[in-house]
Amino acid sequence: MSQNEGKRRSGDQAAEYVTPGSIVGVGTGSTVAFFIEALARRKHDIAGAVSSSEQSTRLLEQHGIPVFDLNSSGPLALYVDGADECDPHNRLIKGGGGALTREKIIAEASKQFVCIIDASKQVPILGRFPLPVEVIPMARSLVARELVARGGQPIWREGVVTDNGNWILDVHNLRITDPVALENDINQITGVVTVGLFARRAADLVIVDGVLRPNA
Ligand code: 5RP
């Protein structure tokens, strides 16, 4: 199966978790684009969506799906999003698309987080994919030095400005054996907005190539 077909199947399958009449949390990326297409096919069934990025907001609006602010929607029953890496305990690296901060906020505000991936995203240990860290621009070098001290090689994603007006460092060469500890640690560095480790709040369910993966 091609990677794209795996993403499409996962996006389609996630639509099965949507409750009629609800507001759905929507992530960002090419896999989520398939989910939005599936959501659009039943848009009269749902109240709308809370979006994690300007990119997803545009797609949702193109499909005529109302987009709500998280402050007015309140807690959500369901959040659906992709990932760059997923370990056997549903812990994730996210932020390849630069939307990690809003994604983490919506994941936190949602009762169920369904992660949709193709098989290539599954890894035994997180860290092959460079770990995105969103930083306040003036703190870029300060944070980079702190990440080097932790054994990583941060590379500035030059030219990219997040939806929140911040910058991204992609940290290479980390072998993440304790994702919760590293998430807590990096979040404490002054100038860090969000680290793209989703371990404290991991996914509840993972759909791989359209098939629900049994939880470890
Ligand atoms: C965006 C993300 C995406 O979920 C992640 O990059 C996966 O994207 P894709 O579905 O295009 O492979 O975290 O910030």
Which key terms come to mind for this protein?
216 residues, alpha/beta, Alpha-Beta Plaits, 2 domains, 4-stranded antiparallel β-sheet, binds ribulose-5-phosphate
Structure in words:
- The chain has 216 residues and is of the alpha/beta class.
- The protein has 2 domains: 3-123 and 201-213, Rossmann fold; 131-196, 2-Layer Sandwich (Alpha-Beta Plaits).
- 30% of the residues lie in helices and 25% in strands.
- It contains 7 helices and 14 strands.
- The chain has helices spanning 3-14, 30-41, 54-62, 70-73, 100-108, 140-149, 179-187; strands at residues 23-26, 48-51, 67-68, 76-81, 85-86, 92-93, 110-117, 131-135, 153-156, 167-172, 192-195, 197-198, 205-208, 211-212.
- The strands form 3 sheets. A 7-stranded mixed beta sheet has the order 3-2-1-4-7-13-14, with helices on both faces. The protein has a 4-stranded antiparallel beta sheet with strand order 9-10-8-11. The chain has a 3-stranded antiparallel beta sheet with strand order 5-6-12, covered by helices on one side.
- Helix 1 crosses helix 2 (30-41).
- The protein binds ribulose-5-phosphate (5RP).
- The site of ribulose-5-phosphate has 17 residues, from helix 2 and helix 5.
